[in-house]
Amino acid sequence: MFALVYRSRAVPGFGPVQIQEMLEKARPYNSEQGITGCLLFHEGEFLQYLEGNQIRVLKLFDKIKNDPRHTDMELISHGNRPERWFKDWEMAFEDFYGDNDQISYLKLLVEGHLGDLEVNISDPAVYAFWENVSRMLRGDLQASP
Fold first, then answer.
1. Res 143: pLDDT
2. What is the CATH number of the domain that holds 112?
3. Count of CB atoms within 10 A of residue 60's CB?
4. Which of 102, 112, 128, 141 has the greatest number of CB atoms lying within 10 Å of its CB?
């Protein structure tokens, strides 16, 4: 199983309506391609984890890199892993605005995952995803791991 994590910044004016439209197209495509993952959006920043067949994930990533709806694309991590992390999600999505119960819950979830993953850092994409979720929520995504 191949996994890839990237982050980017949405172009001005790209918001909830456009994200929903994007997801309506992405989910069926990902399902057909056997790609699962998670997309987070917080304060104009995207963080996405993709997993599946390496050729298919890289083909999708090439399409994403050329998408004009975002800028400042940065590949954070990629690699092989023994099994899917988001096996039931064609594309999970969360949009966190402000300081609310969802963000508090996600912060707890992140701390739990990072604690588990620090024991096994041999899974770089999963670790990088959760580490960057933590950075996103702290507001310091500029500092790369």
1. 39
2. 3.30.70.100
3. 19
4. 128
